[in-house]
Amino acid sequence: MGKAALTAVSLLAAMSLCATAEIRWIDRDYDFGLMKEIAGPKTGTSRFVNLGPDTVTIFSVRPSCGCTTADYSDAPIAPGDTAVVSYTYNPDMRPGKFDKSVKVRLSNGDRYSIRITGNVLGTPESLATLYPVDAGDIRLSDAVIQAGDVTFGRTRAFFVNAYSLPLDSISPVVVSGSQGLAVTPSRPKAGPGDIITYSVNFDSRRHGVYGPVEIPVTFRADAASEPATVTFHAFVLPDTEALTLHQKGKHPACDLTPDPIDLGMRVGTGRVRTELTVTNSGSGPLHILRLYAPSDAVSFGKLPKEIKPGKSARIKVEVDAASLSGGPFRIPVDVITDDPVHPHLQISVSGNK
Fold it and tell me: Phi/psi zone of residue 244: left (φ > 0), alpha (ψ -120 to 50 degrees), beta?
């Protein structure tokens, strides 16, 4: 009889067993130990003895995931006989430690769980795919952490994984470029093939900057190892709900002119100065929380403390043309204010050098 399907007769026979089986496992859980991915799949076995008065059969064996296959016999197990369950783990593209289960169900309804564990030493090919960032004795899963939009005052959590390469243990070291970004390894030490999971927690209030955020995080296998830098990116926006409550019905409204700030068709190689006008067309005072350009060629003058309703403020804009490449340019400028309807506006500085 094949193990893929039981006939109706054998099912009825199995169901007719009323006595509870007395099973003793000789060896249940199995540790594959340190195994090489390049060596391919490995097989382990577990055995149990039928100590009861009645014959039983193995009804089903189900691994917890597709990385493992199982084999067994559906032949009757008489009292005193020993049964064997075998399972094969495929390490292909699965470097690192694993902890899986194989569920065994007998014909009388009893269920058992076999735990299989091991640690896979990955091939260079799988490590380059799953952990593409080289950091000396460790490899990292991400070169960039993209957090997207984050509301000011809230926190966001992310994870970065690292694979330990050395045959000796390491003590991972990580340094964040901001007190608002806490990065913590899952373990103080790691052995060969171990996966280190770094929890990355961004506290926008503690970081204290609106608009684009770019924070470097340096990873090392230990204090003397070669470093690798992962960059954390986020865009922090004001909490518009909190602003609306705080402003008590008197909301500012931000308008920007000119848009774009056009410096003309022939910009020389010196410094070009112009102005940005910020107008408050709302009913409450307007506060500029941040003015930001991603290029060092653009700088801004002093920001006003606040702009009263119906008033405007002129902000000096300076462009260092010497640091720009020749030809047309268009540099975005992010304007973050406490306007609850449009807290983030973007214009550009354009011209032709």
Answer: alpha
